[in-house]
Amino acid sequence: MAASPASSPSPASAGSTASAALFGSAASPGSAASPGSAASPGSAASPASVAAHADRPRVTQLRLAAFAGHRRAVLRLGPLTLLAGPSGSGKTSALRAYDALARLGGGAELGAVFPDAGACVPERARPDAQRRRGFRIGCTADGAEGPVHLDVAVQAEPELRIVGERLSADGVVLLETALRDPSRRAVQAAWHTAGSAPVTRAPLPDDRLGTPLLPLRVAGKTDGQRRVLAAAEQMVVALRSVFSCDPRPERMREPVPTGSGHLLGGCDNLADVLWRTRAECGRRHAQFVAAVRTGCAGPVEDVLAEPDAGGVVRALIDRGDGTRTGLARLGYGELRYLALTLVLFTGPGVLEVDPAGEVPAALQTLTVLADGFDRGLDVCQRAELLRLAARMCDRGHIRLLGAVADASWAERAVGEAAGEAGAAGRGGPGGVTVVHLSP
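and the corresponding structure tokens:
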């Protein structure tokens, strides 16, 4: 992992040199985007919606200091963000880094998050004297505590472990960890106290992120400790509710057993979810059906599920004239459109996610990661799906980060929706942030 002489202020002066080597200026909150990662803001979200959701924790920046094909990349994220670029530009790896941070923020073990960690190491990264190679990722979570920055350094070779972590806000490092003794499966941690002792030091495991462990270690007796806990909570809440979604039409066509009613990432069990959600909220289901009507061929009066032989359920489209069409007859693009529409109309209670159970739902934001957002969709479907996403994201309870090959159509689609809403005398959706990537 490349070293840089610059370093942010650290509570653990003994570890500041090691911290600089791990993070350096490339991973600091103010680092610049790489030439291939320029952000285009599109049209701005409405000021009213921004103000209404300002205190809800949300990830506003993703940093890929050294990860797969990315070097020193800083991606600015809005409520609705599209990563645009040709094949090989790193769209999928950026989504993977976000998902990995979310799982680590939820307390997942490092090996479960990175089963093939070697693929995350930049191809041209040179090993150090101990033959170690790794990668560095980070993010910024905004909310009531202001911007809070998290950066993580992971050693992938010769063995997988976290070798450094930094949580900071307002130029103050609130938590910092560093590997001191490679023979021990632990890192030395130091967190901000601002009491009789400026910092507290203790070992933390090297196979889990330290930030979500802080509530178990920090008493919260001093103002400094309470600041650490508030920043850690904001980061964890911002990261926890993430749903990685890439609908697989070939699996959606088959009847499925009834189960938990929680939608899987591939939307394989869409019929089971429809079986549950259709009766839960009639108003939301009616809006869902109206959106499906726009993106599917032929008349659509309802979208439902019915029991079939063998204890399974199958999803159907009611054509309104006594005809019901099974999903097996729908096209690839129709099925992806239908599945992504359902995701946008539901929430953590329906999707297979890991929300922060101790935090009220009103203070949480669901983030959908959609690889191949426009894959298989025709011109009308992709425009309508993006308009729907813009409307839902503008409400503040959901954010979307999607990947597309070309985003030239996206700003136009959202702009047209805003213009139509203005002409009708109602508020239009917020804008789309486009981040352009290149190989």
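(Above: one complete record from the training split.) The two ends are 21 Å apart (CA to CA).
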